[in-house]
Amino acid sequence: MKVVCVMSIKGIINYERGELAKCEPANRLIDVIQLMAHCGLRALAVVDADEKLVGIITEHDIIQGLALHKGRLDHSSVSEFMAKSLITCSPDTRLIEALQLMGRHKIHDLVIVKDAHPVMIVSATEILSKLHDRDEVSMNNLRHMLVTAAL
Q1: pLDDT in tens, the chain (151 residues)
Q2: Starting at the edge strand that comes first in sequence, how are the strands of the sheet with 43-47 ordered?
Q3: In what order do the strands lie in the sheet with 88-89?
Q4: Is 1 part of any domain?
Q5: What's the CATH code of the domain at 145?
Q6: Global pTM?
Q7: In the chain, which ranges are continuous DSSP H helix?
């Protein structure tokens, strides 16, 4: 009998780890850049007045904006550069499905949505790191079982 461990986003990442970093479409892009730099963020959820997800702004979007405007973003708003075509998943999404979704759409950051509201942004790196950690624990447990059985 083969045992398969199916892990979901919520199974490895505490999506209630604090308040989600977010902004609004009308926010000045320069302010969002400063917030991202200050907080060490790669992406922010963009929400409307009802806190519903309307986009995502990522480092990649900002780099594209810099290139397009030749480095001048003084009067630009988030709405001009945010990704409006959203790729999201729920906390119950299996990790492999989340990674496949990210690969298929060539994105690095995925917005996790619960009850139509964003609860977190997770990166492919974060998922892969958690999977690696889980595999290390599994390998150490197997080693311990083998050593114990050999005694």
Answers
A1: 444 456 788 776 665 556 788 999 999 999 999 999 998 999 999 999 999 999 999 999 999 888 887 777 778 899 999 999 899 999 999 888 998 999 999 999 999 998 888 998 998 888 888 777 766 555 655 555 556 655 5
A2: 22-23, 43-47, 53-58
A3: 88-89, 109-114, 117-123
A4: no
A5: 3.10.580.10
A6: 0.79
A7: 9-12, 29-39, 59-68, 78-81, 95-105, 124-150
Is 52 domain-assigned? Answer: yes
Which phi and psi (to 5°) does residue 112 adopt?
A: -95, 125
Domain count for the chain, please give it.
Answer: 1
Q: Which residues on adjacent β-strands are paired with residue 127?
A: none
Environment class of residue 127 by beta-carbon count within 10 Å: exposed (0-12), middle (13-18) or buried (19+)? buried
In a domain, 85, yes or no: yes
Structure tokens at 65: 């904006």
| Spatial distance between the Cα atoms of 56 and 45, rounded to a whole number of angstroms | 5
